Amino acid sequence: MVAVGSGIISEIAEICHDLKLQGPALIVTGPATSEIVGQDICAHLAQSGFESEMFLSRASRLDEVDRAERLAREAGISFLIAAGGGRSIDIAKLASMRLDVPFLSVPTAASHDGICSAQAALTLNGEATSVSARTPSAIVADTKIISRAPPRLMAAGCGDVISNYTALLDWQLAKRLRNEEYSEYAAALSGMTARMIVELAPTLRPGLEDSAKTVIKALISSGVAMSIAGSSRPASGSEHKFAHAMNRIAPGKALHGELCGLGTIVMMYLHGGDWRMIREALSRLGAPTSAAKLGIDPETIVQALITAHEIRPERYTILDNGLNRRAAEKAAEATGII
Length: 338
Description:
The chain is α/β, with parallel strands linked by helices. The protein has helices at 12-18, 33-47, 62-75, 86-99, 143-147, 151-162, 164-178, 184-200, 209-229, 238-249, 256-271, 275-284, 298-307, 325-334, and strands at 2-5, 25-29, 52-56, 79-84, 103-107, 119-124, 127-132, 138-142. α3 crosses α4 (86-99), α7 (164-178) crosses α11 (256-271) and α13 crosses α14.
C-alpha cells in the first residue's frame, strides 16, 4: 500500500486497520524526527486504540538494530513504524525482518530511494554496507511534512534517482559481458523514473508540496524497481561505488544522494554518455556538481575514483578493472568535478 498526500499522517491508524494490523506498535524514529512526526503517530494510534512504544535511533549500526529488536520482543510488539530518514527506516527494515513482523515506512524527507527497497544501509566495521532486509507493508508519505525538510535533502534525493542512469548502463554492461540476470521491467521502471526527474528538474522547487510529491513518488518507484529485480542493481552501480568509497575516505562530508549525483556525472563520462545533461539537471535542482561545492579537496575525489572498484567487487561495473591516477584525474577534470 502506498499513501501519498498532504496531511496523510492523520490517517495512519486507519491504514493500520486496513492492513489488519493489531498493536502494540514500535515507532522507530530519531531524536529530531520524534518531534516532527513520531509523537503525532503515537497520538493518532492512541486515538484509535493502538498501544505503542517509542524507540529513538541514534546511528545506522547493527547494535541499534539489536536494541530495537530487544525492545520489540520485551514489549510484545506486533508491527513497526519507521518514522524519519534513512537511519530509522533501515533499522526498522532489518529489525522487522528478524522479528518476522510487518513494518510501515513513514519518510520525513525525499532524500533517498531506500523508502521501500528491500535493502538496508548500515555501518559495519566502519564502512557503509548494504544488507538484505524487509520491504514495508505500506508507505505513508505526508507531503506537508516532506516539503518542510531542508532543501538539501530533496536535492540529494533527486541525485539518488538520477544515478539510475549509470546504474542501468552498468547493469547492461554486466548482462553483455558477464551474462548477468537482467530484468527488462525493473530496468524500464528505473530508467523512466530517472528521466522524469531530469526532465522536470527546472520545475522542482523545495518547499512546494507538488515538488515533494513528485520526488517522493520517484524514489518509491526506484525502490519498487529494486524489489522487482530482487537486488539494488536497477539503482546502484559504479556511481554508488564511488559514493561509498568517498564515505570510506572522508566520512560525513556529504549526503549519500549528493555523492551519487557527483558519481553519476563522472560515470556517464566514462560510459561515453551525455554527462553534461546530468550535470545541468543536478545544478538546476540545487545539488552540488563539484567537489568544491561540498568542501571536498580534489585528491579525495581522485582517491575515491581509483579505489571505488574495491567496493562490492562482485558487482560488475565500468570500474571493474579500476582507474589509474591519470584516468581518474582526467575524468574528474573533464567533467568539472575538480
